UniProtKB/TrEMBL annotation:
It holds the Pfam family Tmrp11_N. This is tRNA (guanine(10)-N(2))-methyltransferase. The lineage of its organism: Eukaryota, Fungi, Fungi incertae sedis, Mucoromycota, Glomeromycotina. Residues 17-181 form the tRNA (guanine(10)-N(2))-methyltransferase TRMT11 N-terminal domain. It is an enzyme of class 2 (transferase). It comes from Gigaspora margarita. Keywords: Cytoplasm, Methyltransferase, RNA-binding, S-adenosyl-L-methionine, Transferase, tRNA processing, tRNA-binding. GO terms for biological process: methylation; tRNA processing. GO terms for cellular component: cytoplasm; tRNA methyltransferase complex. It is found in: Cytoplasm.
């Protein structure tokens, strides 16, 4: 039996959690990559707890499981656990045959608490309580032959930031292996030669590579490659990668900074095969099962406008220049038109169904409006099965990391389904309410009415318009808050100056600041 320590990325202020929903999908993916038989009680897993007890056949498989993990910090062979140290010591003493293996080895003890801090004196006292183990080897804090850990879980349901006096659960075990979080720093965007405004951060890129089951010999494709973050992280784990994008400017970069400069920086030239310029809707791939995985971040139309080849007005005829149709000239650039998120998803799933091998994975980001999201919003396809759906929340909107696996051959005539994305309405009721200037209460009524409506739009429909609507509201609120603070400060200045003037020898008729107060009152928002 082993215990995994899954870091919660705690901030020193406020104990902010990141990526809790990504931990189990990565763990399951790593087990599949390494062919490790993994058992755990799913009901015991809690997002606000970084510890998970798992069953693995042996120590070697435990080490393989976490060697490339991003969200698993350590894995321990569990010697004892309980609500009190008496319970832990009783379990440890019940298996003395374990101790003899480490009697003469150099060792190290660590004591750590989740949701609390442990003073030096407290740590020493806890370590001394295990003196009955009788280890005779040297204490080596830098390179011990064996390391033991005491892990205390105080939880996060604290009052006024004060942890409980005693931990809820205590774990004690021998450290088997640690995850590979050093990769996050290696591929950190700040250290990369070439990035863009849509570059995915290193941690999430590496998690996606794990969930795509990237490994030596596999071929992984990114159809919206941008600045190529996924090409690097998937190639790091041994896969051959290639990408394409409708915008060749992002691929080429500027001067000596481009995707190629990143490939050279990380010495991945033998793994990243190429980057191509074309539209996923108008691609050159022959009908075949080419790819082991597709890993991508589709365009939301927020930081970079989502476009595909085509004319906004399909009736409009191509121009003729000097008697030659424009599209036959050497300097011709094909026209583009907006690419709505629901259309992007349909094309992406259709492409994956046609070109992924059976067992291949599609890993992509789905942006959505939090209040409008439902599980039915996840696009599906008859030959694809949903593996995981993990949310990264940003307040009013979020993005979801969707992992799907192709479980059967694609059948001609079967198509992707994106939950009524193209019904008669042109926008969701909530967004329509905001555009018409209706009150929040009206909006809530509209949402309730629409809950069971078959024509309800998915949370990602018209995402770009909704996103900028939120941004506009936030800007207005900030401006109004600034005006209020400005008015308050000037009003205080007016009173202070009035007091000063009246207490001086100058007559009240010389007071001018108070005359301006009406101007500030007129600017105060209602």
């Amino acid at each position: 039996m082993f215990v995994c320590f899954l870091p919660n990325n705690l901030s020193t202020l406020g104990q902010i959690h990141l990526h809790e929903e990504f931990r189990l999908p990565e763990l399951e993916s790593l087990a599949k990559i390494e062919d490790v038989k993994l058992k755990y009680n799913n009901e015991e897993y809690k997002k606000n707890c970084p510890f998970l007890v798992i069953n693995i056949e042996n120590e070697e498989e435990a080490a393989r499981l976490v060697k490339r993990a991003i969200l698993i910090k350590n894995i321990y062979e569990l010697w004892g656990m309980g609500e009190t140290y008496d319970e832990v010591h009783a379990q440890v003493k019940a298996c003395p045959e374990r101790w003899s293996l480490y009697i003469h080895k150099s060792f190290k003890f660590t004591v750590s608490g989740f949701g609390s801090t442990c003073s030096s004196d407290y740590q020493v006292r806890i370590i001394n309580s295990f003196s009955y183990l009788g280890f005779e080897g040297d204490i080596d804090l830098k390179n011990p032959q064996v390391q033991f850990g005491v892990l205390e879980d105080y939880g996060l349901d604290q009052h006024a930031g004060i942890p409980p006096p005693t931990p809820y659960t205590i774990y004690f075990g021998r450290l088997i292996a640690s995850g590979n979080r050093d990769l996050v720093q290696k591929y950190n965007l700040k250290k990369r030669k070439y990035i863009g405004n849509t570059s995915m951060d290193a941690e999430l890129s590496l998690i996606m590579a794990n969930q795509a089951l990237a490994s030596p010999g596999k071929l992984i494709y990114d159809p919206f490659v941008g600045t190529g973050s996924f090409l690097l992280t998937c190639a790091h784990f041994g896969a051959f990668t290639l990408g394409s994008d409708i915008d060749g400017r992002q691929i080429r970069g500027q001067a000596d900074k481009s995707i190629k400069s990143n490939i050279d920086q990380y010495n991945l030239g033998d793994k990243v095969l190429d980057t191509l310029v074309f539209d996923i809707c108008h691609h050159p791939w022959r009908e075949n099962l080419w790819f082991d995985a597709i890993v991508t971040d589709p365009p939301y139309g927020v930081r970079a406008g989502a476009k595909k080849l085509g004319r906004k007005d399909p009736i409009k005829r191509p121009r003729v220049v000097d008697g030659v149709p424009a599209h036959k000239r050497d300097n011709y650039y094909p026209p583009t038109k907006p690419y709505e998120m629901s259309e992007v998803l349909i094309d992406l799933l259709e492409f994956a169904a046609r070109f992924l091998i059976v067992g291949g994975r599609l890993v992509y980001w789905l942006p959505t409006i939090v209040d409008e999201y439902s599980s039915a919003d996840i696009p599906d396809h008859p030959c694809m099965i949903l593996i995981s759906n993990s949310e990264q929340n940003f307040g009013q909107w979020s993005r979801r990391l969707i992992t799907m696996e192709k479980f059967k051959e694609n059948v001609e005539g079967e198509h992707a389904n994106v939950n009524n994305a193209k019904s008669l309405d042109n926008m969701s009721l909530l967004f329509q309410k905001k555009k018409e200037g209706k009150s929040d209460e009206d909006g809530k009524d509209l949402e309730k009415t629409n809950d069971n409506n078959a024509n309800k739009k998915p949370g990602h429909y018209l995402f770009r318009e909704k996103y900028f609507s939120f941004k506009s509201e936030e800007k207005t609120k900030r401006e109004q808050t600034w005006i209020r603070f400005t008015n308050k400060d000037n009003a205080n200045d007016c009173v202070d100056n009035a007091d000063n003037v009246q207490s001086s020898t100058k007559p009240p008729t010389e007071i001018s600041l108070c005359e301006n107060q009406s101007d500030y009152d007129a600017k105060e928002p209602s």
